[in-house]
Amino acid sequence: MPRFAANLTMMYNEHAFLDRFGAAARDGFRAVEFLFPYEFPPPEIKAQLVDNGLKQVLFNAPPGDWTGGERGLASLPGREEEFRRSIEIALDYAAALGNDRLHVMAGLIGPQQSRELHRDVYMKNLALAASMARAARVTIVIEPINTRDMPGFFLNRQDEAQAICEEIGAPNLQVQFDCYHCQIVEGDLAVKLRRDMKRRNAGIGHIQIAGVPYRNEPDTGEVNYPYLFDLIDSLGYSGWIGCEYRPRAGTSDGLGWIAPYRHTGRAS
């Protein structure tokens, strides 16, 4: 049965951040994810989780200077010590909030920069992050992101992400399968889900959804999500599916797509 987690960075923006937890719980969600928790002390977020009966599923490690345009540190040469500190901070938050998935963003690469050098740094940093996270029983996930939404992002394809995880060989390093990004870059979502879900090494550690092409609710656009939800169930995926989309209008008003799963016992 698909289990859906509300992404509180994109959903419920009609509320202040700490009020989004209660709004999600009132709509029937039992889990949440978001991009970054670092503006708030861990006890403030933990209180919202506890008070609203929510599980924290995922958040991102610090990405560098986000407001200045940076989109992750993991592949950036010369930033290795900053990257190590970012994982320490993220693991402290994960310990407080209780999630066992941490998304590490690769970062941007310029057209004149060496992809070989970035990849070498990326591999070493991911191996370090997985080693640091293993004692905390946290899985590091890496996400291919489309270059239409994020030009210059280092990692774009599912097969490349799987190959990186397999080469590193850490048991707690997996790929985050965002259906929205994958559809834009590659398409053929069902084939790729079948290919990667049952890999002996690496595999899929988290799934996210959004309508394509406009990143709205998953009941609009070119992707047949009911078919994919049935497929994901049939492949034995037991994790959460993050709803990382921008509601067309009010978040609660746009949740009609989830009603069939609740009515059949396949609740979020």
From TrEMBL:
Active-site annotation: 143 (proton donor/acceptor), 244 (proton donor/acceptor)
Chain ranges passing through the membrane: none
Keyword list, A-Z: Isomerase, Pyruvate
Annotated InterPro entries: HPT_OtnI_isomerases, HyI-like, Sugar_Epim/Isomerase, Xyl_isomerase-like_sf, Xyl_isomerase-like_TIM-brl
Source taxonomy: Bacteria, Pseudomonadati, Pseudomonadota, Betaproteobacteria, Burkholderiales
GO terms assigned for molecular function: hydroxypyruvate isomerase activity
Pfam families: AP_endonuc_2
Source organism, top-level taxon: Bacteria
Protein name as it appears in the record: Hydroxypyruvate isomerase
Keyword check for Isomerase: yes
